[in-house]
TrEMBL record, chains A, B:
<keyword id="KW-0238">DNA-binding</keyword>
<dbReference type="InterPro" id="IPR010982">
    <property type="entry name" value="Lambda_DNA-bd_dom_sf"/>
</dbReference>
<feature type="compositionally biased region" description="Gly residues">
    <location>
        <begin position="165"/>
        <end position="182"/>
    </location>
</feature>
<feature type="domain" description="HTH lacI-type">
    <location>
        <begin position="3"/>
        <end position="57"/>
    </location>
</feature>
<dbReference type="Pfam" id="PF13377">
    <property type="entry name" value="Peripla_BP_3"/>
</dbReference>
<keyword id="KW-0805">Transcription regulation</keyword>
<dbReference type="Pfam" id="PF00356">
    <property type="entry name" value="LacI"/>
</dbReference>
<dbReference type="InterPro" id="IPR028082">
    <property type="entry name" value="Peripla_BP_I"/>
</dbReference>
<protein>
    <submittedName>
        <fullName>LacI family transcriptional regulator</fullName>
    </submittedName>
</protein>
<feature type="region of interest" description="Disordered">
    <location>
        <begin position="160"/>
        <end position="182"/>
    </location>
</feature>
<keyword id="KW-0804">Transcription</keyword>
<dbReference type="GO" id="GO:0003700">
    <property type="term" value="F:DNA-binding transcription factor activity"/>
</dbReference>
<dbReference type="GO" id="GO:0000976">
    <property type="term" value="F:transcription cis-regulatory region binding"/>
</dbReference>
<dbReference type="InterPro" id="IPR046335">
    <property type="entry name" value="LacI/GalR-like_sensor"/>
</dbReference>
<dbReference type="InterPro" id="IPR000843">
    <property type="entry name" value="HTH_LacI"/>
</dbReference>
Amino acid sequence: MAVTLADVAARAGVSAATVSRVLSGNYPVAGATRSRVLRAVEELEYVVNGPASSLAAATSDLVGVLVNDIADPFFGIMASAVQSEMEPEKAGGKLAVVCNTGGSPERELTYLMLLQRQRAAAVVLTGSAVEDPGHAEALAARLRRLAAAGTRVVLCGRPPLPEAGGDGGQGGGKGAAGAGPGGTGAPLTVAFDNRGGARRLTEHLLALGHRRIGYVAGPAERTTTRHRLEGHRAALADHDRDHGRDLLTEADRLTVHGAYDRSSGYDGALELLRREPGLTAVLAANDTVALGVCAALREAGLSIPGDVSVAGFDDLPFSADASPSLTTVRIPLHEAGARAGRLALGRESAPPGDVATVRTELMVRASTAAPRTD
Amino acid sequence: MAVTLADVAARAGVSAATVSRVLSGNYPVAGATRSRVLRAVEELEYVVNGPASSLAAATSDLVGVLVNDIADPFFGIMASAVQSEMEPEKAGGKLAVVCNTGGSPERELTYLMLLQRQRAAAVVLTGSAVEDPGHAEALAARLRRLAAAGTRVVLCGRPPLPEAGGDGGQGGGKGAAGAGPGGTGAPLTVAFDNRGGARRLTEHLLALGHRRIGYVAGPAERTTTRHRLEGHRAALADHDRDHGRDLLTEADRLTVHGAYDRSSGYDGALELLRREPGLTAVLAANDTVALGVCAALREAGLSIPGDVSVAGFDDLPFSADASPSLTTVRIPLHEAGARAGRLALGRESAPPGDVATVRTELMVRASTAAPRTD
DNA sequence: CCTGGGATAGAAAGCGCTTTCTAAAGCGAG
DNA sequence: CTCGCTTTAGAAAGCGCTTTCTATCCCAGG
């Protein structure tokens, strides 16, 4: 039905082997022959059969990118950056496959299985991990298998995996977990400095004079949430130590958890206001949540930053445009994604300790100011 | 190196054929045999070799989704909806491959070529098309070839292709353009009623009493831009006819073009203000552009909607949250994407005339109001 | 007790490509 | 003018799976 290598070979008056060599370009072919082949390819509109090629060569030009929510620019930016490194137009270029897990660990495993089935060249996992030990172990096992199968695994924006727990059990599995081609076994990691960012953000609020600071945090079970919370508390603890205060114990009461969406911010802010009407500042899990917080505060008749300061996290494109513009912690998502992409392609060597941390940066804008002196 | 079908067959004490049948499930296998095979699969942690499977079966479980900008929720929502129809966890499930073209027609062709190489089961093209005749013909040719190769082609949010131009030329190509399996030849289309939406939006402003309406339109060469502009002008023309006015001739002067981003809105609004300081309303190419328009107007000391009304297009999630909340034209992106996904899978039969139009809906919010009576 | 047919499983022929291994030229050196 | 090397191209053996074709087994019906 479709045009095959043999057809091209016949037309060019050469063997199939020669055509293959011309197209892959990793073997010397005389100039005249080469151009004869290329002409035949043109004339017949030949397109390589990818599956056949992958089967024979035992390689694939697919790179999987797992994201929690493709409709969220946070992930869109990273995915776009990963993809920008793939050079699909070039001969050895890769095709990035963006898979939307919806944040579900089960779906994540499903996609990883499908990617393994496709013998993907690499897999990039973005987004925060769920801390449930069962899921974590299942995920680690799957990633180990992928690595053993020669797929490069890169984590982007999630913490490095814990060391292998169980011994993997039965079956005379051969490779001692991933000395496979191009895999160091342990996944490469591009980590965000969430702790440091949250810490600097809280320090900023403390320096402005805020003492009653609410926190609308992300889902309780995700690593990112925990890290940001830890940074926040570390700043409070430092402050307590230096000033003999006790903000840290208050922090529990002033923290609520929700999803990474606007309504969580809205609801969270109302709940915080209920718990502590004297609130002067609210930290949000991310910028989207911060927008919800702002909406709730405004509806409660509070001005920002006049009555309450609000700060977000991530610095998405819309954050600078919000009114008031959001104080937030910038995560260089594009840079991180691009780096993850290069690691996935093996174009950049693994960072020391296999973990590259990208710095976060405090962006002070209009939504935070000193509290009213009452 | 890796576990193969033969290994599983040996372990289960059956033939490779039987294992294949158990896994694909489209052939009767006795219960006892079946469970013996499944146990062997478990024990050996067998994962099917996708390329081999695709080669032998001459099918693939890849579905390509082309988007202009993956970081833009407009496309993210559609992509997510397409993906939600794929059921990757099921046996016959598909793997959606989201490809970011960056709006470049060349990259679009590159991705289509790669997807054809992978023998993708279907391809969904989202986003507006470029109207350049050269590109349009190249694209149409590529899509024809895809269809001829048995790949289902679905257009989502772009107009149906023009009828085949050239006759395709040389080579005794067989199929008369795509009576291939499951392809009707002509791509299936899910179209947005951009004209109608723009028309109703303009009518809304006219009804409020606006007469000097600026338009910060999208890139001049894209179909979507043209359609929205046509709707806008149709409304103006109707008004002129009924009221003996001449708003239509003014429209040219009050239209500027830009990209689909915030800064285009910002710059565009400033330019419009320069051309017509007495502007009472501004339409934007989409909601992101509208935000830029709002920012520019505000910096110019104008209040929204007090001095100038602003309206967008698309109704992205952030639009209701902006302050003031944006009047806009809602495009049911999720619904459209899901439908495109179903068409791609052949789970929904083709619409009459192969074009399904999804309705757009005017969302009147706080950013539009009657102009000041001066 | 024999036979025909349904149910189940195996043998084997590819699918279209890559890649050794091998052969045929082409060319300088002895 | 021949020998041995390099350069270039073909032959053919898979890669791991699917699927047709065929063989076997078992049971009901005659």
